[in-house]
Amino acid sequence: MHDPEILDKAMDLYLRAGSIIDPIRVRTWKELELTVTQLRVLFLLREAPGMPAGILAEDLRVTPPTVTGLVDRLVRMGLVRREEDPKDRRLVRNVLTERGKEALGEVEREGRALLTQLFERLSAAQLSRLVDSLEALVAAADEVSFPEEGGPLTP
């Protein structure tokens, strides 16, 4: 078992590090006039092009009418388009437009630019230790079974 003080420090630093690029993200979201949830919709649609509203609602843990409102606004903004499924015309698929892809690219470019500035301030040895630590964290996460809503973590 690890020292509780070290665990607390690790958690605090991890959360602080995770929020480093938040000001850049927030500025970019404001410039694009997007909410965090709308941005999540865009990222989900990039991961799974053509995702129908029902699946989006499940992934976002909101109701289908809420997703309809979110997608309606994204359609009006020209970031998403709706397409009929050629195999099942009752099914409507949501797809990023080129403008939607560009918006996500901008968010990512801004974040990467900031991280590049930060990483360049580290020595080669510090950056190497950071990479080793992040690889270890990702490997540990791969060994943990993450629960569905509300269940315990299992090794």
If you had to describe this structure to a student in words, what would you say it looks like?
Helix content is 66%, strand content 6%. It is mostly helical and 155 residues long. The protein has one domain (4-143): Orthogonal Bundle (Arc Repressor Mutant, subunit A), CATH 1.10.10. A two-stranded antiparallel ribbon has the order 1-2. A hairpin with a 7-residue loop joins strand 1 and strand 2. The two termini are 15 Å apart.
Low-confidence stretches: none
Helix content: 55-70%
Radius of gyration: 19 Å
CATH topology value? Arc Repressor Mutant, subunit A
If you average the pLDDT, what whole number results? 88
Number of helices: 7
CATH superfamily: Winged helix-like DNA-binding domain superfamily/Winged helix DNA-binding domain
Short note summarizing the structure:
With 155 residues, the protein is mainly alpha-helical.
Main traits of this protein?
155 residues; mainly alpha; Arc Repressor Mutant, subunit A; two-stranded antiparallel sheet; 2 strands; globular
List the helices and strands and how they pair.
Elements: H1 4-18, H2 22-32, H3 36-47, H4 53-60, H5 64-76, E1 80-84, E2 92-96, H6 98-120, H7 124-143
Antiparallel strand pairs: 1-2
